[in-house]
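Cont'd.
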Amino acid sequence: MSTELTFKQYQDGLANDVFWGLLCDDCGSYTTPPQKVCRSCGSTALQVVELEKSGFIRTFTVIRVAAEGMNPPFVVALVETASGAWVMGNVVNIDPNEAGMELIGRKVTLSSRPVKGDVYACGDIHSLCFTLL
Amino acid sequence: MREAAILGVAMTPFGISDKTNLELFADAGLEAIVHSNLAPGDIQALFFGNCLGDFEEGQLHMAPFAHSSIGLPMSTPAVRFECACATATVAIRQAVQMVQGGIYDVILAGGTERAAAMGTPLATRTFAMASQAQYETPTGITFPGVFAMAAHLYSHRYGIPLVELKRHLAEVAVKNHFHGSKNPKAHFQKEITVEKVLNGMMVADPLQLLDCCPFSDGAAAVVIAEAGKARDLVKKPIYVAGTGQASAGPLYIQQDLTHVKAREVSVKMAYDEAHLTPGDIDVCELHDCFTMAEVLAIEGLGFYDFGRGYDAASRGETRLGGKGTVVVNPSGGLKAKGHPIGATGAAQVTEIVEQLRGEAGERQVDGAKIGLVDTLGGDLSTVCNLILRGEK
């Protein structure tokens, strides 16, 4: 079992509809997106594992004034995944003008979409998407 | 450990300027040196803050040019600091620690920024560069968006209906614009109403235009010296009683945005070092980049319990001449005074120093003896605090 999960491996997973994370042998926490140490206890004893692609919206906003190159309005949310790790992404199956406080606590499934990198970014990126159930 | 004190302080007018970053910094830097009864040749190090000069002017490595533009000696090293919006506060804290540790006796610290010069689309893009570039920025998250998410979570967590919370947030903007109306160097010097805030363009739900600070141009600088030397040079040195700084990861690691954990760690460091508590603070310049940010800050700094600070401005407790124990952002804060990010912390220190010297004019907080500076950088990921006092 690999003990390292790089940005590229995580990205390749998203491109193939697999949500990779890290399980800590010491404290049992899941860390995703990947990093060198456990987000909870700092341990490097981590196993690469496939995570469940679901979670609950904890908070959100509708971006209406966006950075250059983006097309507002769109919904950004923080989701607590089934593994306990939180991730940021876009809620994609709602009209942004209909997004309200009732989104908080809603169950979502996770997927990804390619986002074209602008002149400042280091290439294109698969970014997380949330679909309301 | 030696004691550090602040001598001269200075800021340019904040707003929209035709001056270059170097010209702005030179205006503030030289004025701070002159107010310290020093000459440029007396400065032993320059701790120079700038975040986005490469995008604003195509200028990297600005520190040595700022150094030569005010005539510092070649033997005085110039170093650039970048901690997003907390840049200048971190530079000042590092200067304080260098003086306390006996490395230098006299340091000039501050910063400059031309955020307005970029225009809103590029400025929004560059500010979002302080979000995590691989896992957060691609979602299109913006700085207002971060505090907007905090506002929604706050409303949900504490059971305060959003419409009610928004009205209280608008009162924060009204209060800080009232303070800004008394500050001749503020970006916005006009009072506003709750209705005007609530009728503004939506920027990131639930935050509207007047919930947000402006993109500003400006510079500010302060001179830090060993306390004995400071007493020899100026009538009213302002002493550094305690400092703190803390760091946190991206938002997906921080999770609960209603608690800025880096602030709680940083300000505890400062309170402990100063042997003071939140109740001892008379005046505070804190990081109100958005109205919601002021609510998070007054709670995180210990002035209010968590979930209880949202209506402090509505109750008039944080206003000049109000009935609370601490006046918050008498300068107008980032909200009205403006937010040239690399300069902001030095401008906050400038305001607190003038308050503790009794030189704040119409904005003077009566009897202010102890002041707190609070600056947040990035997505709640850097917080730096300074506690200053006028007498020991």
